[in-house]
Automatic annotation (TrEMBL):
InterPro entries in UniProt: Methyltransf_25 (IPR041698), SAM-dependent_MTases_sf (IPR029063)
Keywords: Methyltransferase, Transferase
Name of the molecule in the record: Methyltransferase domain-containing protein
Molecular function per GO: methyltransferase activity
Limits of the Methyltransferase domain: 56-152
Upper lineage: Bacteria, Bacillati, Bacillota, Bacilli, Bacillales
UniProt GO BP: methylation
């Protein structure tokens, strides 16, 4: 299958990279991705310790948009958080660091979701948003295992669900809405590379971790891991 342009950011300049990632964020915010993710994160937040800040890991953070949104939500709820956002691409990391420089509760670090450089149970909660389809199956299994290892309470992996209607919608967005050539190329391809609910359940089984798959409207999957 074709490769997404965001998987090889050397072919994209910083301005186009940032524009594409922002378009992805807007789709995620207004078309069901964020509600699905936050629904499950908030459930884990209720179980988090009350005597200290909740330690959160954001794998494949991108522009750290979800971390920023979670920080704002936590501020309103008076729940202190310490968020570590990791990404494997140095240029994306630089953009994320610039975007979060004013937020003390977020730190950005280089990291590979398949081999996280943190000890067991280093975090309370972990999440990975809209990135699982970038991994081949064997690597996706490693991501789930690593999240389970480093997150004490649980983790959430949200992504697109592969479905003909979702692909048609992405093609329409690419034609009428998205302006970045990167998003126009990657959007429909992301749906083609995404997993079905059954395939996602098989990933959890292969990873040998405790978890289940939740489907959310429209065409979103949430893999939720727990103790």
């Amino acid at each position: 299958m074709d490769k997404e342009l965001l998987d090889d950011v050397t072919a994209v300049d910083d301005a186009e990279l940032a524009r594409s990632l922002k378009e992805v964020w807007h789709v995620n915010r207004y078309m069901g991705g964020n509600p699905a993710l936050f629904r499950h994160i908030r459930q884990f937040m209720r179980q988090a310790p009350k005597h200290r800040a909740v330690r959160v890991l954001d794998v494949a953070t991108g522009l750290a948009d979800v971390s920023l949104a979670l920080t704002e939500w936590s501020r309103r709820q008076v729940i202190p958080v310490e968020i570590t956002g990791v990404d494997i691409h140095p240029r994306i990391l630089r953009l994320a660091a610039e975007r979060t420089a004013h937020v003390e509760s977020i730190r950005i670090e280089h990291g590979d979701g398949r081999a996280l450089a943190y000890p067991d149970g280093a975090f309370d909660i972990g999440f990975c948003n809209l990135a699982l389809h970038h991994f081949v199956e064997d690597d996706a299994v490693l991501v789930l295992q690593e999240l389970s290892r480093v997150c004490r309470l649980g983790w959430v992996v949200t992504d697109l669900e592969r479905h003909p209607a979702a692909y048609a919608a992405a093609k329409l967005l690419a034609k009428l809405v998205w302006r970045s050539p990167v998003t126009r190329h990657d959007g429909p391809l992301s749906v083609r590379r995404a997993f079905t609910a059954g395939e996602a359940a098989q990933l959890i089984a292969r990873a040998n971790v405790k978890g289940n798959v939740k489907r959310h409207f429209p065409f979103r999957l949430a893999l939720v891991g727990h103790e």
